[in-house]
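Supplementary Methods S3. Input chains for the assembly prediction are listed below.
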Amino acid sequence: MLRVGSNARDMSPFIKLASKSELPPDNEAKEFTVGDKVICVANVNGTITAMDNVCLHRGGPLGQGTIEGDKLVCPWHGWQWDPKTGEAAHNAAAKVAVYPLKIEDEDVLVEL
Ligand code: FES
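Predicted structure tokens for the full assembly:
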């Protein structure tokens, strides 16, 4: 059973991010381009979340990172991020945007 890890609000403009079949497998992350944005989608034990793809350290591509425990690890210098809150593990004040997701039939929708 696929779960989305952030609260989807009703009445908001959601746009298609991907098909369900394109989502990363358990404990992997993947980049998706939506319009002019690149989104990092993380799958932590079946919970899917979406966050901004740009690491606040030096701009590393978070969607090319790895999942360790419940954290996403930036591929460039190893900063760890919480995919549910967007907070850096070592400093909660460093925070990337997290986007609500919802699943409709075979589509995964994101609100940017
Ligand atoms: S760019 Fe992400 S840890 Fe340095």
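The two ends are 25 Å apart (CA to CA). The chain has one domain: 3-7+20-101.
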